[in-house]
Amino acid sequence: MKNNTLFIIKTIPVWKAILYVLLSLVASAVTAAILLSSIYYFQKQFGLVASIVNLLSSLWAISILSPLFFGLIFFSYLFLFYQAEKKRYVLIEFNHMIREVELIANGNFNHKVEERAEAGLNQLAIHINNVVIQARKAIEEERRSEQIKNDLVTNVAHDLRSPLTSIVGYLKLINEDEYRDEVELRAYIQIVNAKAERLHHLINDLFE
């Protein structure tokens, strides 16, 4: 919290800080004058509380309390200006974070949301970055799965095409009587049978 306050104060321009100090001094002086006038007014108007007002007046007259009272008013106004600057800072950082999230939403998953000094925004940035990391891992996993599937289809197609081509070729020779004698015919049939067995094993392996 302390580091957060110091960071926000450092973001305030020097000219604006000086302006806030001057405004706080003027506002404190006006507030003190109004309070003193109110004390004297009540002292004249309400006799029942005259003794209390006289006591307050005597305390006010003590030199050590006057600076403390004025300082309290002064720092109260400074605190109000600080709160306004903090609200402005949070709004600016939040809008900047929205633009970063829009950049990620457009597909730039390598972008990382910058960490913030304000505790709430910093936690939000950390959670967003964690979500982006998980999304990036999921996308990479999906790409790997897609590549594995493509490789599997390619390999299976290649393994099935080889025996199937042989079977079709030898059956075509048999169907067109492209053999010399029964011995060659039996040889063709054995080859077809062997290739069919090979194809059967490949299909079983694929299902397994």
Give a concise summary:
With 208 residues, the chain is mostly helical.
User: What's the number of extended β-strand segments?
Assistant: 0
- The topology string of helices and strands comes to HHHHHH
Share of helical residues: over 70%
Radius of gyration: 43 Å
Low-confidence stretches: none
Transmembrane segments: 20-40, 60-82
Protein name: histidine kinase
Subcellular location: Cell membrane
Organism: Paenibacillus auburnensis
Folded structure, characterized:
There is one protein chain. With 208 residues, the chain is an all-alpha fold. 86% of the residues lie in helices and 0% in strands. The protein folds into two domains: 2-106, no CATH class; 155-207, Helix Hairpins. It has helices at 2-11, 14-45, 50-61, 65-105, 119-175, 182-207. Helix 2 crosses helix 4. The longest helix is centred in the C-terminal third of the chain and has 57 residues, at 119-175. The chain crosses the membrane at residues 20-40, 60-82. Pfam families: HisKA (PF00512).
